[in-house]
Amino acid sequence: MCKLGFVSKSETSRANYSTLVKFALVRYADSQKDGAGVAYVTDHGTLEGIKFLRDVTKVMFKQMSFDDRNTVILHTRTATSGAKDINSCHPFFSNDYKIAVMHNGILYDYEKIRSKQIEDGHKFNSKVDSEILLHAYEDYGDEFINELVKQGLTGSGTIVVLLDDGTLKLWTNNNWIELYKNGNDLIGFSDTNILEKYFPKIKVEEETIYTIKNGKIISKQKTAEMKGYASVSNFVETWSRGKDSIETFVDENELSCPSCLDNVKWNSKLGFWICQACNRHCTYDELVGTRGALLT
Question: In CATH, what number does 3-104+157-222 get?
């Protein structure tokens, strides 16, 4: 699974998080080796970002002009759909660089939505499913989740939107994001081991858009529920064979993650197996080995 994080500083904060951001990128890149990216708000009120492929540690410290910023988002990628190139790395930017979007998780039933967005004039720079989230936010703003659900999108994950005025939008339907409070600053990471020993944690509600600015949660808006599994018509061959089916072939305790070979556990809410080490979502076909399924 991809991993992400963000920092939102208060206007009076003197904390410097540049080292933390770089440390998180290095830590995440140990297991997410297919690219990374950051986006931040400049002193001039515009968005800037940098993306890099492989060997993140060396490239980051040589090329990254990133200094300490009031608002920054970061993402590391495990490529399971789309190409392994710069354009496929998150965050995705709008053409006017007023919006940046990143996502970790899985989207299903998005092909028709993507085709409709292309018809409406949106330009795609990659074949990664997550890019439809950027264009949906361009079209619908904070209603983008509700509209995507109406259009039939299913899936799970965490979405972070960064606007050029420093406002962050956070949404999740699987709680793979932890919020921490450091004084008047707000920090979010999908790796719970980075900060949990040092800062108090804030509970994150699922199916809710959080509006965050200057280290504060400004508002919370409930959204429609997005189903965490694919429609039967889209993934009928893979997803019709669930937990009961796989148990006829192999004991669950003998299953291991295709990425890191750690144990996996069945998640009845989301409808697939989750690796206990790297959080990868695994399908029947991956675990039994009949074929590889594409996950994002």
Answer: 3.60.20.10
